[in-house]
Each structure stands twice: as structure tokens, then as C-alpha cells.
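Here is an idea for our session: we take a single protein and study its fold together. Which protein we use is up to you, so please pick one and set it down. Once you have written the record down, we can walk along the chain together:
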Amino acid sequence: MYITDFLRSRGVLYESLLYRPASSTARRASNAHVPGRKVAKAVLIKAGDSFVLAVLPSTAWIDIVQLSGIVGAPTSLVRLATPTELLATFNDCEPGAVPPFGRLYGLKTFVDSGLAVSDEIVFAANTRHEGLRMQYADFRSLEEPVLASFSQPTFTPRRKPEQLGRDRLVG
């Protein structure tokens, strides 16, 4: 089902954003002239025998160790889906476009708490050249995701020299 049809059928207001096709959420944010922290990146995750959808800010990456504890699968059994698995799951979407509505695809959706602080979110629809902007509260109401903390920022702010080495991430 096309995301716009789904939103219209539920009476949810949204804004359509058209831009050059983008292969990453960071480029999508730049092309749409939207801060990256408001752009939702939806990632299909294989967790044990099933798939889940992880939704996080485009300015972050998934911490697999944290996510494995949240989804209840051993870290060794949690991984990114393959391109073939993505195409099979999101068969109504262009490659590279993964909408954050796991419910429409029979998936449980997990939203990182870093995204939940935004009043609005922007995300991919069914194509790589169309994004949608809507209120986060409307998204939460429609999707009813599990809210959890499972990401790390892609970029960290500059630190004073005396702080370097004290708070490095391993991985």
C-alpha cells in the first residue's frame, strides 16, 4: 500500500516533499533542506527468525548490542537485512526507500528515543524521490511503535583535549 494512500485513509495531515533521488537519508535530508535529526531512517533488521523495523534519526547509527537486548535476540543473531530481504519485504517500494510504517508490512516497529523528541518527522515514502513530513504524534498514534534507545550519534561534538579518550565508543 502506498504510504500516502494509508495516511489519507486515516485522515492524517502530511506534506509531500519532492527532491532528487537519494541513496541515503543524509542526502535525502540535504536534498529536502531538512535538519538530519528530523529525518527518520528506517532499517530492516533480521533478529533471530523474524524481521523488525528500526527507525532512528538519520544522524545516528544503530547500536546492535543495545538493539539485540531490546528485541530479545542474541547479538550474534541480529543483523541488517540483505538487499534481497529488503526487496522481498518492501515489494511496493523502490530500492533504497524504506518507509517507517512496519505495521503495513507485518513488522514490529522500534523507534529510537532520539527521534521521538522531534515535533515532526520526515521520511521516505515508496520512492527515492518523495519524502513525507508529518507530526511525530500522528506517526506514533498510527504506528504504535516500541520506544527505546538503540542508537549512537554519527558525529560527536568537538571535545576539549582533556576529554579525548575518556568517552570513546568501541566498535
Observations:
- The longest strand covers residues 40-47.
- Strands lie at 15-18, 40-47, 50-57, 60-62, 78-80, 108-112, 120-124, 130-135, 146-148, 151-153.
- Residues 3-152 form a domain with the YbaK protein fold (CATH 3.90.960.10).
- The mean pLDDT is 86.
